[in-house]
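seq as requested:
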Amino acid sequence: MDFKLIITKQAEKMLDDLVYYLFVKINSEKAAKHLLDNVGKMYKRLQENPYQFPYCSDLFLKGKEYRKAIIVDMEYLLIFRIEENYVYVLGIFHRLEDYREKI
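struct tokens:
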């Protein structure tokens, strides 16, 4: 059973900002493309089986049943939650960010 993926406006903006930063500020088309490719792969994995990813280790976020998926080969992660057959992507963060404050 595939899950329906819902990308929040906040998550869309975060991804746009990251791609802009990598492509324009850092001047790395390769890094921007790599991020987009890996996010696309992660979205597919979330649709197939979001339960493969652990709950956030932060107790507050875990209490809200938020999960995290680390983007392979990059320093970014997705924060999401599952409700019935829906997966809501709440944000895309650098692994060192205090994402609890930004969700």
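The radius of gyration is 13 Å.
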